[in-house]
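ok trying again, last paste got cut off:
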Amino acid sequence: MTTTATSKRRPTAPRGGATKPEQPSLEELVHYSPEDVYKKGWLPFTPRTLRNKANAREIPYSIAGGRISFTARHIREIAAMYEVRPISESKPAAPTS
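nice, full thing came through this time. structure:
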């Protein structure tokens, strides 16, 4: 009985210049309770308000383990939602024809 040789393939780089997605840092994976967010002063909302807004789906959140929690990304997104830009930065209205 003869055996066939199998060649071992070396992994090749993805075509088209695609690179591996970057692994998230540990900081990005940590979940904070509404109480943690309030105590650290990251958002100007009470824990009750954060829960109410999350339940109404007004803000991004996670429901890991059946509890409302926030990642660093969520906190940044919520802060950006309430940002107000100066009038000089607003776009002029499109002309109507």
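cool. The radius of gyration is 24 Å. The chain has a mean pLDDT of 84.
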